[in-house]
Amino acid sequence: MAHKSKSNKNLIENIEQYRQLVEFSPIAIGILQNNKIVFINTSGANLLSTASPEHLTGKSLIDFTHPDYRETMLDRLELILDGKVETETFEIKFLANGSNIDIEITASTFTYYNKPAIQLTFQEISNRKKMEELILQSRHDWEDTFHAITDAITIHDKDFNIIYANKVARKMLKLPSLDKHLVHKCFKFYHGMDNPPKGCPTCTSLKNGKPANFEIFEPHLNTYIEIRTMPRLNSDNELIGLIHITRDVTERKEAEKEIRKAKDELELRVEERTSELRTTNKQLMEEINERKIAVGALQKSEKEYRNLSQEFNTLLDGIPYNLILLSPDLKIMWANKAAARVFKKEVSKLKGHICYDICCNIISPCENCPTSKSFLSGKEESAEILTSEGKVWDIRAFPIKDKAGNVKTVIELAGDITEEVNLRAGATRTKHLASLGELAAGVAHEINNPINNIINYAQLLLDEAEGKKTDDEISRRIIRDGERIAAIVRSLLSFARFRKEDKINISLQDIFSDTLSLTSAQLRKDGVHLKMNTLSETINISVHPQLIQQVFLNIISNSRYALNHKYPGTDKDKVLKIECHRTKIDGKPYVEIVFLDQGTGIPNNILDKIMNPFFSTKPNHIGTGLGLSISHGIISEHGGKLIVESSEGDFTKIIIYLPEAIDIK
Q: In whole angstroms, what is the distance from residue 518 CA to residue 628 CA?
């Protein structure tokens, strides 16, 4: 019994070792049942570009096979399953990450969990296929070069047989087809003899294994030929034949004869030309001196150009704006140091990078890209681009054209103008606040005196009524409504007199009270149902009250516009809800203020742009595009957050988080 237990333990250990051997094998191994993958090791998953083997279990291997090879795959697997062959090795192509991979598969049948199965081993042979193609191409290139040589080249074995010849040799020697079963003795075709001629240097070279180089007139070919022979040796340095190179030098020989004849005539004319050459030589020396002067000037000019180029590069690197040179496929050809600092790379390592990949980490050109437009239009283009980090870049593109007028490159100049845009928005906000303050102060002063007179006259009437004991209800109504108007005037004056002083602790309910005193009448007039749900206890916040009131007024105005646009008249769903809750962010107390309207909502494709300065969904004569941008800035300055959620046609929810003031002074 103990021996059996030990055998079982050894068997389990052997199985586990075999399983680990297969699992961690560098060779891709898989098992198929019913054309489905039931097992594949990590190397197989990596070969198929899959994160883990578990993602492949249950999938068909046909799905990873190139369409042109799927029928071959099915036929080979069927042969194995039908028992027609035990093992089959074949080549196919797989598809992985959109690329074709050459694979050699060895498949064999076996039983896996008591069911017939096919064991597969995969080996990528893409490199081997490429090498085979290169070898075949090299052979073709060698043969093309061999036959393109103008000399007659024949290759001989050690028995004087011609075993290979190029086209020139076949034509010169009138060689028949070189069948390996036929004998083609070199002396028959070169010399027209049945035996090697006496004193033949080629024959001597075959015997002693030394190269030879000689010229002869061959009567059989009726040609002057220059012959060079080189012995062929095997890997054991044994002579196995030679390479025979023949050049027709008949024309050269005739030319040499003519040259000798011309030489005599030339010598007669040399003396005649000597005097002319002396004169020409003198002129040439003068030209050489002039050329030296020109070369010196050119070298000086080149040095000045190099200095100027260095100064120009220094100037470009000193520019604080990003300056890059882009090719038509938007690859960086050159960049200054400012661009390298923004991209956080060395200048030398930026070349070749695609601009939108390294700049914005996207796979296609930016929307409204001025550089792409400049390549198309051939004109200077510019745009302000908002990045995902909230920065605004002023980008200008300047085309560089060739002689034909085609744009060959574009210089892109980019500068971060986020601060400038914010300053413009702040200036506009200040201007609007000043205008609104002047208007509010003027209206308040114009109303304040008359309303105080009305209250005083009503008080006089009330005092007289008390003495006469008559009905004084009308007088009391006049006083009550007059005081209400006076409260509204005080709110306007408070809003108009705002100066950016220190924050104060104030209850959120007081800010809402002042805000609604200015807007409730307009909401009632438009038929908007206002539902307030604020906490019963006092919520104190440390803020600039007028700025927070401005944010609330802007949000309520936007909600009123959206509700009026969706419901021109009265409607039960024409509702604006305002809720307040206490919450905590990172363990610190905050107050959450929610404005919810069931108006037109905001389209999803512009939801990420509504915080941008000067972006507005309202017509030009109604909105400036600064409301939410300024509101977002005000809330951020108070250490809070402003979040917008919306569904087009359904609702818009504005959520504001402001730090709650704990210690009230």
A: 19
User: pLDDT tens digits for 37-58?
Assistant: 999 888 888 888 888 888 888 8
2-130 matches 319-414 in fold: yes
CB-CB contact of 31 with 37 (8 Å): yes
Q: Name the token pair of 169.
A: 């040799």
pLDDT per residue as tens digits for the range 398-431: 999 888 889 999 888 888 887 777 777 666 666 6
Per-domain boundaries in the chain: 2-130, 149-248, 319-414, 417-497, 503-665
Return the CATH architecture of domain 2-130: 2-Layer Sandwich (3.30)
Contact criterion met (CB below 8 Å) for 549 and 502: no
Task: Choose among 562, 582, 277, 554: nearest CA to 436.
Answer: 554
pLDDT digits (tens, 9 = 90+) for 482-507: 776 776 666 566 555 544 556 888 88
Three-state SS annotation for 202-259: HHHHHHHCCCEEEEEEECCCCEEEEEEEEEEECCCCCEEEEEEEEEECHHHHHHHHHH
Assigned token pair, 116: 């017939």
Domain 319-414 has CATH 3.40.50.2300: no
Residue 531 near residue 576 (C-beta atoms within 8 A):
yes
Would strands 575-585 and 529-533 be described as parallel, antiparallel, or unpaired? parallel
